[in-house]
Amino acid sequence: MTSRDRRDEHVAANGKRHRSRRPTETELRAVIEPLAKIERLPTSAGEREAAFVIADLLRDLGAADAVVEEEPAYASYARPIGTLTAIATVAGLLAGRSRVGATLAATAALIGVADDISYRGQYARRALGGRRRSAYNVVASVGDPDAPRTLVLTAHHDAAPTGAVFDERAARWFATRYPHLLDKVNENPPMWWPVLAGPALVALGSAAGSKTLRRAGIGLSALSTAAFTQIGRSRAVPGANDNLSGVAVLIALAKTLREQPLDGVRVLLVSAGAEEALQEGIRGFARRHFPELDRERTWFLNLDTVGSGNLVLLEAEGPLRMEPYDVPFNNLISECATRNDIAVLTGLRSRSSTDGVVPNRYGYPTATLVSIDDQKLIPHYHLHTDLPENLDYTCVADACALAEATARALADPRSNP
Questions:
Q1: Is 290 found in the same domain as 195?
Q2: Among 117, 266, 320, 372, which one is least packed by beta carbons within 10 Å?
Q3: Domain match, 294 and 206 both
């Protein structure tokens, strides 16, 4: 069954009640296509240019307070993590001289990688990430400025570099060869685990005097170093799905709320920069704005890569440890989807990371809306084929309608997510 078939089946089962506005493909393309032409690596001049374009669009749609906020940020995860895996490689090669030294160096590299990708202290990034630059966040408000409740819609406008590790042919082959296994899959492959396994095996092999383990660790660490070196030197992909699709939702909602005003909830529209450097931009937003956002009256809905064909409301997310999203808020969004004839998959988890992890960890009720295709993959993920013509615009329009429905549900004082 295709994504469109499922959508039609969902509508037939629930009746045709289209209460939220679905923007047209032309309207969505008008936002996505010009921005996709801008090369938008994290903290780059292109990211800055895109931020000001988005702010201008929001102001034209009535969000007069739309601003671009500059936040200190590192440009990439590739440099610090690639340096750590290189340290593990060298430690393994020199273990014959000092097993203790190799064990300590590889262990330090392992801890550094785990710390960096799980958004803890990120000490290695500070030491090895080079000079801090600037991420550019766009922040605007629509809806009821005096409302007791706030919904923060987040997306990101920077684009990822590419690399051979993102080649999707092996995953496509597996999904095509073993389609019966797809129903059993509820999370994507843990891409960070092999990166961690390299230093771990070097440390374990050095400590135990096992050449087999150490050589395996050297091989994995060397491959990781090569992969991160390539990523660090790559140009940005167009990023139409990841994540101009999310940005288009923010713009569409601003237009909707200008034409059909909303009372009872203030809506913050946040397009963050440097998400592809592992959430650098939204971390800056957190430092600046979280002190003024009441955890009891603020909800976050993160929109990331919503043009793949099938919307997904993530149950949990995390590259190492799965961190669950807020169940009552997810339930409210699911109810909104049902009332508005929007097909949304649930029960799925992600081994990647999006901007939603940051407010979720700070204790805000948070939900993250993503999408997958009929093979449970993200098509063109971090590839130069992530172009506007490869988007499922019906899926993006559904995300727009669901974001609006969620805002209107929170505006109802009887709702208690």
A1: no
A2: 320
A3: no
Tens digit of pLDDT at every position of the chain (417 positions): 444 454 444 444 333 444 688 999 999 999 999 999 999 999 999 999 999 999 999 999 999 899 999 999 999 999 999 999 999 999 999 998 999 999 999 999 999 999 999 877 788 888 886 789 999 999 999 999 999 999 999 999 999 999 999 999 999 999 999 888 888 889 888 889 999 999 999 999 999 999 999 999 999 999 999 999 999 999 999 999 999 999 999 999 999 999 999 999 999 999 999 999 999 999 999 999 999 999 999 999 999 999 999 999 999 999 988 999 999 999 999 999 999 999 999 999 999 899 999 999 999 999 999 999 999 999 999 999 999 999 999 999 999 999 999 999 999 877 777
Distances (CA, A) of 204 to 56, 78, 86, 112: 54, 24, 17, 16
Residues 142, 28 share a domain? yes
316 plus 365 within the same structural domain: yes
* Any domain includes 417: no
**pTM given for the model:** 0.91
Q: How far apart are CA 43 and CA 48, in angstroms?
A: 7
Residue 171 within any structural domain of the chain: no
Domain enclosing residue 13, as ranges: 3-71+135-162+236-411
Count up the domains in the chain and report the number: 2
Instruction: Check whether residue 35 and residue 149 sit in a common domain.
Output: yes
The b-or-e profile of 270-294 (16+ CB within 10 A means b, else e) is bbbbbbbbbbbbbbbbbeebeeebe
CATH number for the domain harbouring residue 16: 3.40.630.10
Are 405 and 19 a contacting pair, CB within 8 Å?
yes
In a domain, 178, yes or no: no
Distance from C-alpha of 49 to C-alpha of 36, rounded to nearest angstrom: 12
